[in-house]
Design goal:
alpha+beta; 10 helices
Length: 358
């Protein structure tokens, strides 16, 4: 959520499937593939336009000490393939699993995100104060996306041809919730490099939640975002690869993953709020390089450095890659001293071509 200068909340809109992917799919000659993408774009457009017209001068809410909930408060709803939110309540915190796998996966994913934030970083929910987590499943007809609207998570079922149910990937759930985390902390403006950082931070948190849930080290992780989301007919592994941006998919219908992995290939565009889903591949790869260089559990050192920058109060809303990089170097030094962690941060940003000195 965004707090305007008048104190009111501004809803936001962040989707896991980038508009350029849906746009490419909408031009397919096969109506079975194109029509769901067109409907999804039509549904997403008004929300995205609303976001662009909304002032983003929010007052970030900092995590403060004191008694906060140590357990999540989750509520799940079923839209029954309609678009009225939140839908029919189907599961609350502490309820037994239902017969609906989508409900149960969404419930588990919200809990996994809460657990990582609390266990690894001592933060109770995305606002630091135990904010209840709400999700709605079965949104729309063949809706090819999942989104966080500033108040809740929403999951489509996918069309079954290109995308499967959007609750199947825990990192997708965590990615979207992490947009809320960013807005409650650094409040990164959703355009250009600050927007790409916003997307990248969500990918980082999504990957960390998946690794934490699976008990994987940096070396064991696949570093894919949305693995299992693409239908069997699609030639690809996921929506994005943090390890090797630009390699997640290469498909006759979806096209080839366009993400760059270094500043040498930075994409200048007016589409997608200045390429926020494209250029996020650059800081994504920097994080991967850092985490694998340090080894062990990614959330412990690499993730802690990123979290320190996100919540530290020095990152500006209009931050570019260089500002974020400089702050990660400073954060590594502040937490770990002049040790391996700081040197690994410097090397990671250097490999993707982002300067770390003003």
């Amino acid at each position: 959520m965004h707090l305007r200068t008048d104190g009111e909340l501004n809803p936001v809109f962040c989707t896991i499937v980038p508009p350029h992917v849906l746009d490419h799919l909408s031009r397919c000659a096969d109506a079975r593939l194109a029509d769901p993408a067109r409907r999804t774009l039509a549904a997403d457009g008004p929300r995205r336009d609303r976001r662009m017209m909304t002032a983003l001068a929010a007052t970030p809410v900092r995590h403060t000490a004191g008694a906060v909930p140590s357990k999540p408060h989750r509520t799940l709803y079923d839209c029954e393939r309609g678009t009225t939110l939140p839908g029919v309540k189907v599961r609350e915190e502490g309820d037994k699993p239902t017969s609906d796998a989508s409900v149960n996966r969404a419930y588990a994913g919200l809990g996994a995100t809460f657990e990582l934030l609390l266990s690894a970083y001592g933060r109770s929910s995305i606002d630091g104060r135990g904010l209840p987590l709400t999700g709605s499943v079965h949104y729309g007809r063949e809706y090819n996306n999942a989104f966080f609207d500033g108040e809740q998570m929403v999951f489509g079922d996918g069309d079954g041809e290109i995308f499967l149910d959007f609750t199947v990937a825990v990192d997708v759930i965590a990615h979207e919730l992490a947009h809320g985390l960013t807005q409650y902390t650094a409040n990164l403006r959703y355009e250009g490099q600050s927007g790409a950082l916003n997307e990248s931070v969500s990918d980082v948190i999504g990957s960390l939640v998946k690794q934490y849930s699976l008990g994987q080290s940096a070396e064991q992780a696949d570093w894919l975002i949305g693995a299992g989301l693409l239908a069997p007919r699609v030639s690809g592994d996921a929506l994005r690869s943090m390890k090797a941006p630009g390699t997640a998919y290469d498909d006759d219908v979806l096209g080839k993953d366009p993400q760059p992995g270094s500043m040498d290939d930075y994409i200048e565009t007016e589409e997608d709020n200045g390429g926020v889903h494209l250029n996020s591949g650059i800081p994504n790869r920097a994080f991967y390089l850092l985490a694998t260089a340090l080894g062990g559990n990614s959330w412990e050192r690499a993730g802690q450095i990123w979290f320190d920058v996100l919540t530290g109060g020095e990152l500006t809303a209009n931050a570019d890659f260089a500002e974020f990089a400089r702050l990660t170097v400073a954060a590594a030094g502040a937490r770990f001293g002049e040790a391996d962690e700081r040197e690994a941060v410097l090397k990671a940003w250097s490999e993707v071509g982002v300067p770390t000195r003003a």
